[in-house]
């Protein structure tokens, strides 16, 4: 197994609040890693640190062995230029919790924007690929619609297609279903399940414990900025070793 | 729901039949409604709307009467002046001044807005100070300062501050009254435009920038393609206001003895005694015509930039008028 993402000694503070406190974390290629934990535990911050949307105070992140957002220079970690960071991000897909498609662009324009601009894919080719992706997420008939004409679940599926359009080696999901009503959650989870079956490397921050149990290969439980427990879902979610994990899971049922 | 409606049927009477069978009980509202030939609901009538409309129309008719029957307006003189070459020249100058200062003002405003939003504290403070200063100086005072610039600086030069200069101009040669007017209006306009542009940019949700940067879009592209088109929607109404203000604000330049529309009206009125009223009406009507044109452009720009922001684009005034006539039954 190859390591897709490696986080070592991640520390991040907002003022006196230590959101990430020496977090070590590994995700394997071709696997789905689920990050669970209570609100404010630092799980979203950890996910955002992986593509440097949230720069770390100390510690580092590598994706397939490449340092993200920083470089080694004379024995120190130095932040990369904005341009270099943006280039790295185009290898990592990110799906946000809030539905933040670009409302003034049609569905297909949302999907082709990044490949056309950052990877210089010819427009016709990008559109053809966007159509394939939108078909895959079940929205072939919504290509020319604007995001506000879609339901929340449809918008989130477009967001997934938009992330996939860059053919990323890794996709990060930040609570992809928490802004949706229960009926729409299923259609988004189905898309993620299909991606998992195809062997896409994914890290998913989620509150859907049932989904994590079914789809994840590896579950990480975080509390107060620290990794409390991690392992296969049957262990962490069914027979947790740690009291704090048991307490958290007990509240969810 | 009227006060005379009978108490609701009790829980046991789930089927309508038992109620009908009890002959001695009076007919319920439900029974009465069931017997109606048509269940179509008659919409609420609004008699006071007709009264208010009538009152306003009478007042309007009075105003029209007052305008047309008072000989002091000298409508024949108005007709004479309205398309005189001297007036048209003034009109063209007004359009030039408005157009040039709008372009320079908006460009300056965009730069100032981006400076104020930058994370560089020097750029931020300089932009803030510029806006503070030029919003504080009345336009008329600024124009007079610039018109009398030779009293302050006889020569203007490009070079290193406190060091050598490369080019030198005589301030008098460089700054004609025309340029003074464009410069003054643009400097003033940029300060206001900056705040309008900034308000548009901050009205776009931060998450849009975050989404764009998560996709790896370059910084310039993030602003050009993602932020500005959405900001423009918020900018248009406020900037149209500003532009209309500028259009009429150009009348202030008459104090530098530049004859734009108002300057012509004013100077002709001083030559042709007794014609001040028709001449002022000429100016007024031309300003109204230009403002109307700007308002129409504003309307269609707003419609264009509402793409995606609204589920359905609102109808044009003509479409709205047609549907309004149809619902009131006039068009049928």
Highlighted features:
heterodimer; A: 253 residues; alpha/beta; Rossmann fold; 2 domains; six-stranded mixed sheet; four-stranded antiparallel sheet; 9 helices; 28% strand; globular; B: 332 residues; mainly alpha; MetI-like fold; two-stranded antiparallel ribbon; 15 helices; 2 strands; flat; transmembrane (chain B); transmembrane helix (chain B); MetI-like (chain B); Amino acid ABC transporter membrane protein, PAAT family (TC 3.A.1.3.-) (chain B); membrane (chain B)
Written overview of the protein:
The complex is a heterodimer of chains A (253) and B (332). Chain A is 37% helix and 28% strand. Chain A is α/β, with parallel strands linked by helices and 253 residues long. Chain A has 2 domains: 3-91 and 170-251, Rossmann fold; 100-168, no CATH class. In chain A, the strands form 3 sheets. Chain A has a 6-stranded mixed beta sheet with strand order 8-9-10-3-11-12, sandwiched between helices. Chain A has a 4-stranded antiparallel beta sheet with strand order 2-1-4-5, covered by helices on one side. In chain A, helix 5 packs parallel to helix 6. Chain A is globular, with a radius of gyration of 18 Å. The two termini of chain A are 34 Å apart. Chain B is mainly α. Chain B has one domain (71-306): Orthogonal Bundle (MetI-like fold), CATH 1.10.3720.10. Helices cover 69% and strands 3% of the residues of chain B. Chain B has 15 helices and 2 strands. Chain B has helices at 17-21, 29-35, 47-69, 75-82, 85-117, 121-136, 139-147, 149-152, 171-174, 177-202, 206-214, 219-249, 261-271, 276-305, 317-328, and strands at residues 155-159, 165-170. In chain B, strand 1 and strand 2 (165-170) form a beta hairpin. Chain B is flat and about 110 Å long. The relative contact order of chain B is 0.10. The A-B interface holds A 51, 53, 82-83, 86-90, 94, 96, 98, 100-106, 113-114, 117-118, 146-149, 162, 166 and B 205, 207-208, 210-219, 221, 225-226, 229-230, 233, 305, 307-311.
């Amino acid at each position: 197994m190859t390591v897709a993402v490696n986080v070592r000694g991640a520390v991040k503070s907002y003022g006196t609040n230590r959101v990430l406190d020496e977090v070590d974390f590994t995700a394997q290629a071709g696997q789905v890693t689920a990050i669970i934990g209570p609100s404010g535990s630092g799980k979203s911050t950890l996910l955002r640190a992986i593509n440097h949307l949230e720069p770390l105070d100390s510690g580092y992140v590598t994706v397939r062995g490449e340092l993200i957002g920083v470089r080694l220079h004379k024995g120190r970690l130095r932040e990369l230029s904005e341009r270099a960071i943006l280039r790295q991000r185009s290898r990592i897909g990110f799906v946000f919790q809030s539905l933040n498609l670009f409302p003034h662009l049609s569905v297909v324009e949302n999907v082709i924007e990044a490949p056309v601009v950052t990877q210089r894919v010819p427009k016709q080719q990008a559109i053809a690929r966007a159509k394939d992706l939108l078909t895959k997420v079940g929205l072939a008939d919504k290509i020319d619609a604007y995001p506000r004409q879609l339901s929340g679940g449809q918008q989130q599926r477009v967001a997934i297609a938009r992330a996939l359009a860059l053919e990323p080696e890794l996709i990060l999901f930040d609570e992809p279903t928490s802004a949706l009503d229960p009926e729409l959650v299923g259609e988004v989870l189905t898309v993620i399940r299909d991606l998992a079956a195809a062997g896409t490397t994914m890290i998913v921050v989620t509150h859907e414990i049932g989904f994590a149990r079914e789809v994840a290969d590896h579950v990480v439980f975080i509390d107060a900025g620290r990794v409390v427990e991690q392992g296969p879902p049957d262990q962490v979610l069914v027979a947790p070793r740690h009291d704090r994990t048991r307490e958290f899971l007990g509240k969810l049922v | 729901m009227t006060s005379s409606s009978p108490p609701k049927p009790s829980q046991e009477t789930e089927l309508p039949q038992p109620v009908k069978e009890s002959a001695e009980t009076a007919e319920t509202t439900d029974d009465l409604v069931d017997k109606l030939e048509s269940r179509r609901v008659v919409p609420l009538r609004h008699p006071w709307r007709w009264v208010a409309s009538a009152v306003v129309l009478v007042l309007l008719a009075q105003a029209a009467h007052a305008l047309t029957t008072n000989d002091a307006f000298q409508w024949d003189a108005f007709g004479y002046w309205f398309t005189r070459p001297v007036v048209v020249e003034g009109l063209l100058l007004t359009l030039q001044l408005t157009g040039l200062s709008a372009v320079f003002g908006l460009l300056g405003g965009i730069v100032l807005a981006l400076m104020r939003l930058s994370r560089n504290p020097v750029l931020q403070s300089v932009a803030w100070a510029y806006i503070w200063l030029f919003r504080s100086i009345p336009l008329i005072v600024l124009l007079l300062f610039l018109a009398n610039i030779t009293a302050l600086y006889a020569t203007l030069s490009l070079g290193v501050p406190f060091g050598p200069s490369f080019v030198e101009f005589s301030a008098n040669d460089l700054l004609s009254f025309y340029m003074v007017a464009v410069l003054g209006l643009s400097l003033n306009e940029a300060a206001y435009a900056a705040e309008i542009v900034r308000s548009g940019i901050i009205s776009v949700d931060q998450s849009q920038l975050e989404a764009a940067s998560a996709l790896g879009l370059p910084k310039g592209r993030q602003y050009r393609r993602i932020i500005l088109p959405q900001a423009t929607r918020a900018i248009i109404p406020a900037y149209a206001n500003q532009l209309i203000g500028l259009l009429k604000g150009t009348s202030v330049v008459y104090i530098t003895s530049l004859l734009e529309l108002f300057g012509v009206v004013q100077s002709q009125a001083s030559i042709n005694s007794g014609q001040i009223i028709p001449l002022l009406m000429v100016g007024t009507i031309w300003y109204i015509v230009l403002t109307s044109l700007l308002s129409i452009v504003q309307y269609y720009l707003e419609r264009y930039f509402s793409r995606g922001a609204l589920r359905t684009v609102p109808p044009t005034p003509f479409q709205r008028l047609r549907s309004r006539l149809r619902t009131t039954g006039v068009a049928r």
